[in-house]
Amino acid sequence: MSSKALNQPLPVGSLLLRSLLKRSKAKPELFDTYSELPSTQFTNQFSHIRPAHLEDFHRIVNWPTQLTERVHPCYFHLYAFPQHLKLMLDKQFPFSLLGIVHLRNRIEQQCEIDTQAPFSVSSQYGDIVDHAKGLSFSIKSKVEVDAKVVWQSESWFLVRYPKSNQKKSEINVEIEKDKRVESEKGNNSTNNYKNPHQEYTGSSPWHFSGKTARKYARISGDYNPIHLYGITAKLFGFKQPIAHGMWSKAWCVSAVAEFIQPKVTVEAKFAQPLMLPNRATLHQDKRDHRHVFALSTQDGQFLHLSGYLES
Fold it and tell me: Does residue 46 lie in a domain region?
């Protein structure tokens, strides 16, 4: 593995601009042959967590005020995100970043985090596997304090099959095939699942605004145009801006914060985009040793994300 130490925080703005300009080098006829990703690992060193930044993050994800001395499990993703972009901008990564879909994210926090301690953040590619709609790959990140891993995550992404060299009839056949695959998955389907109002014991309404999403963009550094304004979202095929997936996940985690212990695992799968502004409903329930949650439209007809917390 090639390990590269980065001497300063990565400029997220310029990375996002480069991500909009990068074009795919993957040849359609060879798409199924990609079985490995670059073995590069990027690492940043930090002297400590900035208190003001942590406070801003806690506020924007509605972290309970009585827990402000503790670090939200999703916080370190903000440090890993620029490394994710840099990995995907690597010349050896063959795909364009445009159209890549964030499928799911798993976070494991091993202990209470000392906010004053120096720490390092590292990210590298995980696996790449076949998916019904293309290829799915993962990026693994970790945070170390005194050479001990205190936090780690794995994010899975989807690269869709290229359609440019296919006839419209062939594309329609694949779309119908995708629908059948999703239907067969049952609970994993975004179009064929049980209404959360019937599946969970507790629910509460939330309101997500575009203004708050832009505040999250400022704190996280994720200024992807699809999250900002209607006019910028339309440039990329969305009628309205959509919520950051990790923002909505962090909100859900905050809602079940009373169940979080110093050692905790939180996983979420992303389904339909949450258009902004919008009202959504959080559903939650206790099942065995897990606290499960889901975020849906108010009527429960469309699922935005589902996940669990285990602590």
Answer: yes
Grouping H, G, I as helix, E, B as strand and the rest as coil, residue 158 is strand
Residue closest to 16 by CA, chosen among 76, 82, 77: 82
Residue 202's pLDDT is what? 64
Are 42 and 228 within 8 A, CB to CB? no
In this structure, of 12-21, 32-41, 44-53, 86-95, the range with the lowest mean pLDDT score is 12-21
- Per-residue DSSP letters for 13-82? HHHHHHHHH------GGGGGG------EEEEEEESS--HHHHHHHHHHTT--GGGTTSPPTTTTHHHHHH
Strand-strand pairing, 290-297 and 278-287: antiparallel
Kindly report the pTM of this predicted structure. 0.85
**Residue 172 located in a structural domain:** no
The CATH number of residue 75's host domain is 3.10.129.10
What average pLDDT score do residues 22-50 get? 82
Question: Per residue in 161-176, pLDDT tens?
Answer: 776 444 333 434 444 4
Residue 175 placed within a domain: no
Cα–Cα distance, 308 to 311 (Å, whole number) = 10
Task: Tally DSSP H helices, then E strands, for the chain.
Answer: 8, 11
Q: Are 75 and 247 in contact (CB under 8 A)?
A: no
The CA distance from 115 to 297, in Å, is 36
Count up the domains in the chain and report the number: 1
Establish if 170 belongs to a structural domain.
no
Boundaries of domain holding 64:
2-162+195-310
Q: Given this model, what pLDDT does residue 91 score?
A: 87
Taking the C-alpha atoms of residue 72 and residue 63, their distance in angstroms, rounded to an integer, is 7
